[in-house]
TrEMBL record:
Family under the similarity heading: Belongs to the outer membrane factor (OMF) (TC 1.B.17) family.
Identification of the protein by name: Outer membrane protein TolC
Matching SUPFAM superfamilies: Outer membrane efflux proteins (OEP) (SSF56954)
Keyword terms of this UniProt record: Cell outer membrane, Membrane, Signal, Transmembrane, Transmembrane beta strand, Transport
Signal peptide location: 1-18
Top-rank lineage group of the source organism: Bacteria
Organism: Psychroflexus halocasei
Length: 420
């Protein structure tokens, strides 16, 4: 007995390890991780970090090395000699090398405003990726529940096949004693072959649907993988939490930050500069010799009049914000309509499933009576199969309605933003 139990649990462990279980939420996570678009998030973050680093460089001293050699056609000439002063005529060939340093002192926060704008743009782009990945969930739902339906139908066909094998064993004794014609067995065997054909077709269709799901998840799904039917709870009270709403908010924020950056671009800019040089002539144009020199100072730049350009740019941004606002309202309206349609479908499939239970119960009674009649030779095997097909057609319809209800519930939650 102990040996039997040991073998039983070992076999059960092997079967469990051979069959992988895939849930709907796991499918979402795989798509978010493996789908090629997901790789852009890391790239955008690195790109933004580099752009901000470049902007920070604008606060550091800027050094320029310049060198120049020139020959000019004329120079300053002195009409007469001043007593006791010896003034040389400047050379026509001149040479100069300088090292110029400029240090930004104040720019009204323009660089910081540009950094804030880059950050806002990055957040908007990242949210756009999240929106694009979220839209995959509806496609995943369709593929996932298609595989699930074919999986359930294959299981139901297998159950029907086993039931017919049981009927075949039961009528063998009836044929032996002449109570049932041998043709009845042939009809049942033909029906078994037909079911095996349907099972094979369902398996091929399932593999096709699995391949489609694998493409969406960017990961190969094993043929042994069993999809778990999700138990989806619907909460009508919660507000819609679609990532698109966060995207609209970030777009509005980005536009507001852009407006601030435009304002800061009008602020005065104050910088200090230093020039170290060596040349002939130096700063003293009357000395024809190589000299070193330096210049230090402050420089102020302020565009006090731009012909209303800044005002117009801000006006354009306000128009853009209004466009985003109307897009947000339109999306909300369409989202509410879609949710209401899904709620109606949920009610429809729930009512159909309630009736499916009654239909199946009635057909089960009919088939139960036909089994006795078949064994006693009262009805033919064709008549029995007709009643059995009606029962399994009702069961397949019930499965179809269950899968459709699950798909509508999943789409409802995706549309509402509950599957984040």
């Amino acid at each position: 007995m102990k040996r039997f139990l040991f073998l039983f649990f070992s076999l059960a462990s092997l079967i469990a390890s051979a069959q992988e279980i895939l849930t709907l939420k796991q499918s979402y996570k795989l798509a978010e991780t493996n789908y090629p678009l997901a790789k852009q998030s890391d790239i955008i973050q690195k790109k933004t970090s580099s752009e901000i680093s470049i902007l920070d460089k604008g606060k550091l001293p800027q050094l320029d090395l310049n060198a120049q050699a020139s020959y000019q056609s004329d120079v300053i000439q002195f009409a007469g000699q001043i007593p006791n002063i010896n003034m040389e005529t400047p050379n026509k060939d001149q040479y100069r090398a300088t090292l110029d340093a400029n240090q930004l002192i104040y720019n009204g926060g323009h660089i910081n405003a540009q950094k804030e704008l880059k950050t806002a743009q990055s957040e908007t782009q990242l949210q756009q990726i999240e929106v694009n990945l979220y839209t995959l969930k509806s496609r995943i739902n369709q593929s996932f529940f298609s595989v699930l339906l074919l999986q359930e139908q294959a299981s139901l066909l297998q159950s029907k096949k086993e039931l017919l094998h049981l009927r075949l064993k039961e009528i063998e004794s009836g044929i032996k004693y002449g109570a049932i014609l041998p043709s009845a067995q042939q009809v049942l065997k033909a029906e078994v072959l037909k079911i095996e054909q349907q099972i094979s077709e369902a398996e091929f269709d399932r593999q096709k649907a699995v391949d489609n799901l694998s493409s969406l998840l960017a990961q190969k799904i094993s043929t042994n993988t069993i999809l778990k039917k999700p138990n989806i709870f619907i909460n009508d009270d919660s507000a819609s939490n679609r990532p698109e709403f966060a995207l609209f908010n970030l777009q509005e924020n980005q536009l507001e930050v852009s407006k601030n950056a435009i304002s800061k671009s009008r602020y005065p800019k104050l910088s200090g500069f230093t020039q170290l040089g060596y040349g002939n002539p130096g700063l003293n144009m009357l000395d024809n010799s190589f000299q070193d020199f330096y210049i230090v100072g402050l420089k102020l730049n302020w565009n006090i009049f731009d012909w209303g350009k800044t005002k117009k740019e801000k006006q354009v941004i306000e128009f853009s914000k209004e466009i985003v606002s109307t897009e947000k309202e339109t999306f909300k309206l369409n989202n509410d309509i879609e949710l209401q349609n899904f709620k109606n479908d949920i009610d429809k499939y729930r009512e159909m499933l309630e009736k499916d239970d009654g239909i199946i119960a009635m057909y089960e009674e009919v088939v139960k009576a036909s089994v006795t009649q078949l064994n006693n030779g009262v009805i033919s095997s064709s008549e029995y199969i007709t009643e059995l097909n009606k029962l399994y057609e009702a069961k397949i319809n019930q499965q179809l309605h269950e899968i459709q209800l699950g798909l509508v519930k999943a789409n409802y939650r995706v549309t509402k933003g509950d599957f984040n």
